[in-house]
Amino acid sequence: QVQLVESGGGLVQAGGSLRLSCAASGHIFSSNHMGWFRQAPGKEREFVAAIRWSGINPDYANSVNGRFTISKDNAKNTVYLQMNSLKPEDTAVYYCATGPPGVVRYDYWGQGTQVTVSS
């Protein structure tokens, strides 16, 4: 089992920055794929970014590429999402997720953290 707890959300003006954190506990291994997703009101949940627990091959949605950076601290079992140049359309609840080692599948989800970007 894996437990995920997000933090760092809040209200920010357009153009500002936030850093989200996702603290993981339980059975986390170097081959766990960690992802960030978001869901805006009235919209489906969408992929934002992902990274292997080893830190290689990060992947980003086109809408955030160049503005967001996913990273991780193995010693703290924590994954981060640095969000720069925020736009009102980035407003959403942000979730981190993971699944079985070695598989790109998201079985475990955090409770989410709200990000609101004002114009």
Helix content estimate: under 10%
Tell me the series of helices and strands, N- to C-terminal. EEEEEEEEEEE
**Low-pLDDT ranges:** none
Q: How does the helix and strand content classify structurally?
A: mainly beta
Alpha carbon gap, first and last residue: 40 Å
Question: Count the helices. How many?
Answer: 0
Global Rg: 13 Å
Largest β sheet strand count, sense and barrel closure: 7 strands, mixed
List keywords for this structure.
mainly beta, 4-stranded antiparallel sheet, 7-stranded mixed sheet, 119 residues
Quick summary of this structure?
The protein is mainly β and 119 residues long. The chain has no helices and eleven strands.
Protein described:
By secondary structure, the chain is mainly beta. It has no helices and 11 strands. Strands 2, 4, 5, 6, 9, 10 and 11 form a 7-stranded mixed β-sheet that branches. A 4-stranded antiparallel β-sheet has the order 1-3-8-7, with no helix packed on it.
Per-chain topology:
Blueprint: E1 2-7, E2 10-13, E3 18-26, E4 33-39, E5 46-52, E6 59-60, E7 68-73, E8 78-83, E9 92-98, E10 108-109, E11 113-118
